[in-house]
Amino acid sequence: MKEQQSVIFESATLGSLRLNNRLAVAPMTRVSALRDGQVGPLMKDYYERFAKGGFGLIITEGLYTDELYSQGYLGQPGIATKQQAHSWLPVIQAVHDQGAKIIAQLMHAGALSQFNRFVDSTAGPSTVRPLGLQMPFYRGDGEYPTPSEMTEKDIADVIDGFVQSAILAKSVGFDGVEIHGANGYLLDQFLTVYTNQRTDQYGGSLDNRLRIYQQIIAAVKKAVGHDFTVGVRFSQKKVNDNEYLWPEGEEGAKKAFSSVAHSGVDFIHTTEPVLDQPAFEGVSEEAHEGKLSLAALAKKYSGIPVIANGGVSDHSLASETIESNQADVIALGKTALANQDWPERVRAQEDLKTFTYEMFNPIADLETANKFFKSTFAE
Ligand SMILES: Cc1cc2nc3c(=O)[nH]c(=O)nc-3n(C[C@H](O)[C@H](O)[C@H](O)COP(=O)(O)O)c2cc1C
After folding, report:
1. In terms of Cα–Cα distance, which of 4, 8, 45 is closest to 24?
2. How confident is the model over 348-377, as pLDDT tens digits?
3. Angle 298-6-349 (CA atoms, 0-180°, nearest 5)?
4. Does the N terminus or the C terminus of the chain have fewer Cβ atoms within 10 A?
């Protein structure tokens, strides 16, 4: 059969990292690690399948960064210790053997933590109980606890956790790190007006709310050097709030994206429900003159490569988003779980499987998904 031709199969560059194509697997927490945060038995095959299936880049699930407040979930892998970092060696090797690259996502759950084996309480920017309920498919139950307010010492520890994790990620052969600044987790709690009620240098103005991003990026970059790619992920929506829009509109996006680029980050990863939709639809006209997507705003105001994510299933939206210069790389989440060989299937013009939340029922782990695939697609 004739091969699909598309810009998505062309190579791309993120900082010093060269990718075979413009297709990335989005970071997805699968709560399948050992209890001590090391890689669990099903994880190597899982990540290897994406690489075999033609993805140029895999971004890992969010890895917790310290033995303090960062862990979010039971079964979440960490990269806070040498042992945890070393447990990734077989995964990294398997992915590299297929010619793909792998970036570790570094994540601090903050007030959204549902489980932490190091402390019994949660901490965030301010003592504000998170909206919504904990996620049962990550073994959570009921309301989130109210976090304690992080002191300046706690914030210094957070920054140090990201730095040490990035150093460990580099030492075991990851091709880069992505700092998780999205989806309602700790950094996003600082950025979001209603979860940050601080009156010190980390709260109030947008500049202050962005300070922790800038400090983490600058410290990580300084520690890992220029030949190791460092990205940052942004979103407006959160796992526990799917309506939030950045209140400063396009001016806020300009400040966020230009400031992280200024701090030395190599790429920005944006996630929205649908990656190419106008970012501030419904916000006042002045706040959003050009009706650009969040990804396009990131490109416009940062001048660095952008990964865009959200709502892609078939290849046309992915191709169009790159062709219209809104992004350099497209990250696929749920459709990649249903089609771990999405790039190969698309190239060969084969049918795609449809994602269903059934594969996370009752838990969004790999054991449940493997059982689901066996019973649904028994070959
Ligand atoms: C099971 C699951 C786990 C996820 N875990 C993470 C995560 O660890 N870090 C993150 O930044 N986003 C996470 N996400 C969000 C995805 O990266 C992605 O932004 C989202 O699924 C939307 O993209 P899609 O429409 O292609 O699925 C997760 C999504 C799913 C479905």
Report:
1. 8
2. 999 999 999 999 999 999 999 999 999 987
3. 125
4. C
For the entire predicted model, the pTM comes to 0.98
If you take atom 18 of ligand 1, which residue's CA is the nearest one? 333
Kindly report, residue by residue over 294-347, the tens digit of the pLDDT.
Answer: 999 999 999 999 999 999 999 999 999 999 999 999 999 999 999 999 999 999
Annotated active-site residue 185? The verdict is: yes
Domains of the chain and CATH, by start = 7-376 (3.20.20.70)
**Which residue in 370, 342, 360 sits closest to 42, CA to CA?**
370
Q: Which residue has tokens 């300046």?
A: 152
Taking the CB of residue 349, how many other CB atoms lie within 10 A of it? 11
Quote the CA–CA distance of 198 and 204 in Å, as a whole number: 7
Atom of ligand 1 nearest to the CA of 178: 11
Per-residue confidence band for 4, with pLDDT thresholds at 50, 70 and 90: confident
DSSP assigned state of 143 = B
Taking CA atoms, 179 is separated from 77, 112, 191, 230, 269, in Å, by 15, 17, 14, 7, 10
* Contact between residue 190 and residue 125 where contact means Cβ atoms under 8 Å apart: yes
Does the beta carbon of 61 lie inside 6 Å of ligand 1? yes
State the distance from the centre of ligand 1 to the C-alpha of 1, rounded, in angstroms. Answer: 33
